[in-house]
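Researcher: I'd like a structural prediction for the single chain below. Treat it as a standalone chain; there are no partners to consider.
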Amino acid sequence: MPDDVLSERRSGSRRFAPLGIIFGLVGLLLFAYFVSRAGVGEIISRIQRLGAGFLLILAVSSIRYIVRALAWTRCIERPYRLPFRDAFAARLMGDALGNIIPFVSVAVSEPSKAVFVKHRVPVVVGLSGLAIENIFYGLTVALFIFSGTATLLLNFPLPKALRYASIGALIATVVIIPLAYVVIRRQARFISRALILLSERGVARNLTTKLRPRAEAFEERVYGFYANSERSFLAIFALDLCFHLAGVVEVFITLSFISPVPPTLTQAFILESVNRIINVAFKFIPLRAGVDEGGSGQVSRVLGFARGIGETLAIVRKGRDIFWSAIGVVLIWKKGFSLRGIAE
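Model: Treating it as a single chain, here is the predicted structure.
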């Protein structure tokens, strides 16, 4: 890759670094505040009550990586083939980057997965497969958030701020789903057209000129899959839907251990839908520190749980994420990748 293109990308990463540090610090401050307010002693007691149940949570959470890796393999068009083992390892490694790199993780986490499997399929093929799988995943996220938020609004009295936030989430999903359908149906080439527009206006001309043919090839593969692989749609959608179902089961199991009051599947469903909103809206904050504790804590109290239950649930989720991120980092190290090389 030309030096001027690399220098532009590196300078962009440097510009994002201070923002990443700021968001990371804000997350830590929020985490300390919400944990302190919920009661450190109570949270520790509930985590101890979980005990070996954490192994069960890890087992259930592995399903989420498995189904999305399987969905990705089904989004790779012939003559290329992506083995499940490589897709699974790439998901672990990419998500590990997303959890440990603040702010930049939004731009690095997903594309890095294609880099991790470039010995199996060309990068543009891996990227287009990821894009297709993420379209299906995004659709299931929107449907899951919509149904969870509607359930919360219809069954529980909410504080004004939480009610407005829930209504906002409903409106967003109602807008996003039809918009995504229109974009796919019309095969809108918005990435390549945006690069052309930027180049014509002299914005990062060297970089946009370099990326344009790759963007066009990428869009061609994505829309080509839509036109030629309709039989795979239901299977991919079902796999991504299993991701959310596993999340509900995981929340239900966690609550069963840490809550003195037995949870219901409806409560677990609502809490997991809130977790999806937090993951989408605050992906730039490492491990969603602070915002997960605040959001889960407030909603858990609305659902009738004792103080500290939602915060404990969020901390257990962080323990789960740290476990899988550690495995991802080990895999990155064993396979000889470096963070700088991945970014380039």
